[in-house]
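okkk here we go again. third time trying to get the zinc ion bound version out, last two times i messed up the smiles copy paste (missing a bracket lol). double checked this time i swear
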Amino acid sequence: MTPICRRCFLVALAACLLAADAGAAVLKSRRFEGGEYVLISDIAYYYHLGRNTSNDRETVSYRDLVAKADRREITLNGIQHWLSAPIHFYQGKLWMSATDVLKTVDPVLRQGRVAKPLAVRTIVLDPGHGGNESGATTRRSVEKTLVLDLAKRLQQQLEARGLRVSLTRTTDRLLSLESRPAFAAQKNADLFVSLHLNSGGNASGIETFCLTPAKAVSTAAAFRGWQATRDQNSYRGNRHDEQNIWLAHCIQKSLIRSTAAHDRGVRRARFVVIRDAPCPAVLVEAGFLSNATEERKLLTADYRNRLAKAIADGILAYKAGVEKK
Ligand SMILES: [Zn+2]
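finally!!
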């Protein structure tokens, strides 16, 4: 893939028309129905994704990008991602919102590359809950205990690969949500990874959250049109939008590849711990305790080792991307 000029790309979307990559492709956006949209076939051309192999008018299937009309989930580089706006079918073609192109597709397809390479040395791991806040519980398992164990295994994995690691808690004690990103700031962290286990009936699988971009819609909220749903706030964590999504993608991809768990995708939320993070940050939901099959796996040290190794591999993939010159 040809590296692209970040500044030009931003301008291209803002100004609706501008060449980005020395004439290799022109990415235009168009305004309709109150939003800014980019034609998906243009995205495919711009990022060299090959031919559309779908015969269905309302679906596109390119290498690294599969999308369907009216859906907010796409497959991007083999992993499910949740967009802020549904894919739009308009004038017989499929369009993606410019925000989603800029905040999700672009950082992932550039594989985290930035103009000025970033160093990754210090990582803060944040086992969720603690003390009298147990998180998800069943008759046999407690989230706060399992995620602390997972964090310690992950710490070992990362330290063995030469990274500096600190945990927000190393014992069973309650921390406020605000103190967790504050701890990362104190440690001068380059990355923040919060670890959780899920609960919700028979649902299963793994999902990774990163911060919703400013003016975009979180995954759990319905998209009600651009005017109705825009959150205009930009939070501390939004300074790292590009790295947040790349980190979430790398960790989710590595976890799904290693466990073959159901891919619930990279999702967006404004959880306090990722919203206030001073560095790129994600929150991993590494499986459902409420699902008997997944709970059985999560209760074995073997499986937790596998999760720890997969998250460590994801972090290294992230690092390789942002450190590339
Ligand atoms: Zn939790």
